[in-house]
Amino acid sequence: MTRHADPTQVQLTADGRLKHFLTTEGLTKSLLTEILDLADSFISTQERAVKKVPLLRGKTVVNLFFENSTRTRSTFELAAKRLSADILNLDIARSATSKGETLMDTLWNLEAMYSDMFVVRHADSGAAHFIAEQVTPGVAIINAGDGRHAHPTQAMLDMLTIRRHKGTIEGQTVAIVGDILHSRVARSQIHALKTLGAKEVRVIGPATLVPKEMAALGAKVFYDLEQGLADADVVIMLRLQKERMSDALLPSESEYFKLYGLTEAKLALAKPDAIVMHPGPINRGVEIDSAVADGQQSVILNQVSYGIAVRMAVMAMAMSGQASEQAAEKSQGETL
Amino acid sequence: MPSTVNSLPDAEVLFQQLGANVKSYITDNNLQQPLLIGIRSGGAWLAQRLQEELELPELGIIDISFYRDDFDERGLPIRAQGSKLPDSIEDRDIILVDDVLMSGRTIRAAMNEIFDYGRPRRINLAILLDIGGRHLPIQADIVGAKVALSANKKAKLSGPKPFSFSLENQS
Questions:
Q1: Would you state the torsion angle of the CA atoms of residues A112, A118, A121, A122, taken in this order, to the nearest 10 degrees?
Q2: Partners of residue A49 in chain B, C-beta under 8 Å
Q3: Which fold, B4-69+81-158?
Q4: Which A residues, 291 through 330, put their C-beta within 8 Å of a C-beta on chain B?
Q5: Which of A155, A198, B36, B121 shows a CA-CA span of 20 to 30 A to A91?
């Protein structure tokens, strides 16, 4: 078994088109822009009387969630349905693997049911990448979150949100606040923001939840919320991942809210037209005050709508990349 | 069909002809508030200029990228720009506009997409150049001209101002 060190190469065809979507890391600005442009067209198709387009008619998509996530799973499900694909939801956490079946055996069984795409959520970093390397050519893998590594569709829906509300990503100062340590979203966001030309990416949180290597990714580290929010164009709040946290990392939720919770007074330090984002689910009164979450500057619910369009875009592009690669191999086979 | 040609007519002259034909078609068939819908990209250019010349209030643009029947062979085109249609097309008289009619597959895809927006009263088809070679039972109601091309050739429109045709080999 050979493992490619670079997931970027695994997710692209020989001519640089997307065939899996594993990470935003290493993807070019033009490819990320192509995802956003396509997502924009899918926003308009969803405003019609008939929300579906027949692009993936006859294709079978399997939602393979080894970790629970109602929102991500249901937006992937809607995205597949609006592309006219058939979708199967597997709650793996409660089925085969708990009976001792290995990951690859589960996968091969599903492949034998003629699946065309797997949407994978897994607690281990690198799981989607591993599956992409093992899977039969022609089958696309979409990473719906792997451990602490990446959550690329969430990052891209955040990019789409910024672009639609601020016009462009170039030149924006973006502050990401909260539990950076456990956040695969933050890592994917930083890669995408840097590639798309954000002026400054700041990560803000307590030292126990902000790993130092964030600076190496090109982000500016702040431990003080008020300093970090100064003149920001975009404020992205992250959920405090209580389920992943041991007690030593945090004093208490109320203490955390006092220091890092976003209130109207603190938001006033950012630019007056700054937007507030959150990947959800939100913990009101822990990382964000209700007045901000429901306020004028919040675009949290818009993010959910854009999430469907972005997932439609990457699914269509990955399936398209697989189709063109298969067609190229077939014509090569014929000439030999 | 006329005998096979190896050169194409002047696209600007054809466009004037098409404009006159669309105008008399609207009168002859008594179309009420006809809605021009152009298929990206050539058909959209034509529909835009027809709209100006005929002084019609509305215009629709349709991008059939999501409705093509060759996704498994070709995948998505590099740029899908999306469709822009008026809020309602219910009971409208539509004139669907495209540059070149050959297999008819593009027109089938466009009609499928139009029906996802609503139920028009009638769809009429206006084509600048009909080059034959149909795969589907689809015919134009209004044409600029008909020519027969040799089997391995196709016509490509450049535009939007001025229009010109070039002859290309079929891929």
A1: 40
A2: 116-118
A3: Rossmann fold (3.40.50)
A4: 316-317, 319-321, 323-324, 327
A5: A155
CA distances from B27 to A336, B60, B171 (A): 59, 21, 40
Residue range A102-119, pLDDT digits in tens = 778 888 888 888 899 999
Q: How far apart are the C-alpha atoms of A21 and A17, rounded to whole Å?
A: 11
ipTM over 0.90: no
Q: Is A38 in Cβ contact with B80 (below 8 Å)?
A: yes
Domains and CATH numbers, chain A: 7-150+305-335 (3.40.50.1370), 152-301 (3.40.50.1370)
Q: How many residues does chain B have?
A: 171
Looking at A147-151, A327-331, B19-23, B56-60, which range is the least confident one?
A327-331
Q: Do residue A324 and residue B71 have CB atoms under 8 angstroms apart?
A: no
Amino acid letter, residue A326? Q
Cα dist. B148→B103, B108, B158 in Å? 13, 21, 20
> Measured between beta carbons, which residues in chain B are less than 8 angstroms from residue A331?
none
B80 neighbourhood in chain A, CB within 8 Å: 37-38, 41
CA distance B97 to chain A (A): 21
